[in-house]
Amino acid sequence: MATNGDHASTKPPPSPSPLRNAKFFQANMRILVTGGAGFIGSHLVDRLMENEKNEVIVADNYFTGSKDNLKKWIGHPRFELIRHDVTEPLLVEVDQIYHLACPASPIFYKYNPVKTIKTNVIGTLNMLGLAKRVGARILLTSTSEVYGDPLIHPQVESYWGNVNPIGVRSCYDEGKRVAETLMFDYHRQHGIEIRIARIFNTYGPRMNIDDGRVVSNFIAQAIRNDPLTVQSPGTQTRSFCYVSDMVDGLIRLMEGDNTGPINIGNPGEFTMIELAENVKELINPKVEIKMVENTPDDPRQRKPDISKAKELLGWEPKVKLRDGLPLMEDDFRTRLGVPRN
Ligand SMILES: NC(=O)c1ccc[n+]([C@@H]2O[C@H](COP(=O)([O-])OP(=O)(O)OC[C@H]3O[C@@H](n4cnc5c(N)ncnc54)[C@H](O)[C@@H]3O)[C@@H](O)[C@H]2O)c1
Ligand SMILES: O=c1ccn([C@@H]2O[C@H](COP(=O)(O)OP(=O)(O)O[C@H]3OC[C@@H](O)[C@H](O)[C@H]3O)[C@@H](O)[C@H]2O)c(=O)[nH]1
Hints:
Blueprint: E1 29-34, H1 39-49, E2 54-60, E3 79-83, E4 96-99, H2 106-109, H3 113-134, E5 137-143, H4 170-190, E6 194-199, E7 202-203, H5 214-224, E8 228-231, E9 237-239, E10 241-242, H6 243-255, E11 262-264, E12 269-271, H7 272-283, E13 289-292, H8 307-313, H9 321-336
Parallel strand pairs: 1-2, 1-4, 2-3, 4-5, 5-6, 6-11, 7-10, 8-13
Antiparallel strand pairs: 9-12
Helix pairs in contact: 1-6, 3-4, 5-7, 5-9, 7-9
This protein binds nicotinamide-adenine-dinucleotide (NAD) and uridine-5'-diphosphate-xylopyranose.
Cofactor: NAD(+)
Main location: cytoplasm
Subcellular location: Cytoplasm
């Protein structure tokens, strides 16, 4: 059984469907991806669908996701797409649940904070209830935001974080912290097989063009020849992981033996001024960089310690920022209808 030090479960996990071991049943792995119409979720679905033994069900309410991200799978016999809000219970028979449903960009998660909390708390409770009923393994995409404005650097999983419980970001970061608590309580109390990934900033093709996150903003601005908006002071840091590396890490975590939480991210750390300079150099050397006001509680530094992911999952990211940015530029140019000169 998967363990995480002193977090060992008190109960054996519930039995999976009897069909899993049936002699004449062609046992496919049935996988639910909540939030599968979003940025990371749709790339995860692409990877899962490559395996002919997988059947994939996506449940999404399309708040920040889109059917367009999944258009190549719609109508495929091993694929099903359900319009569903995870704050409502869902009855499906599955073996694994990748639970991603939740707006991720600060402008979207702050837009309706009460709904963001409900998605994180009630949504995660519903998915854990489903996992309990059908004996499925469940993976939660938690976040580096559980560390808040971190007082230790780089962030290790054992750090408990420095989070404002009443701030404008709390619906998301406290929401994810409760979601992690629920995961471990279901694991200890009901024997549910859990996996928790703490994801650090991820970027790549299919991010919403007006998503509001920094990499998508800068790339869209550079292509449109609008000034790159660095939020002050610009010395705050982030570590950016390309989406193919992220998906690889999530699948390894799901398939491995460790509950987590495990940091998954790229330790390459950049200030926002450095990121803007890289985007300017690679995409549009003539574009202006302008300093704008920041939002409250913006974490000043963020960099994952990925020793655990390396040791327990044999995972580390392969794509450097300067190689990933041009791949994202191609996708943004196609969608914006602005070819390279
Ligand atoms: N991208 C990152 O940098 C990052 C970093 C840390 C954690 N994460 C986590 O990874 C997950 C995916 O992030 P993303 O970047 O793909 O974001 P995204 O906004 O592109 O995708 C989220 C998906 O969840 C769906 N959704 C939102 N609320 C829902 C609800 N109540 N019911 C059903 N579906 C709902 C959205 O429509 C969307 O398709 C999220 O849980 C996020 O918190 C992402
Ligand atoms: O146009 C912009 C947008 C953002 N920024 C800055 O860029 C940094 C990163 O901001 P983003 O909005 O991309 O994302 P954040 O790092 O704040 O949160 C992110 O990381 C953790 C995930 O869980 C969240 O889902 C994700 O949005 C911040 O310091 C912000 O001030 C800019 O300088 N300019």
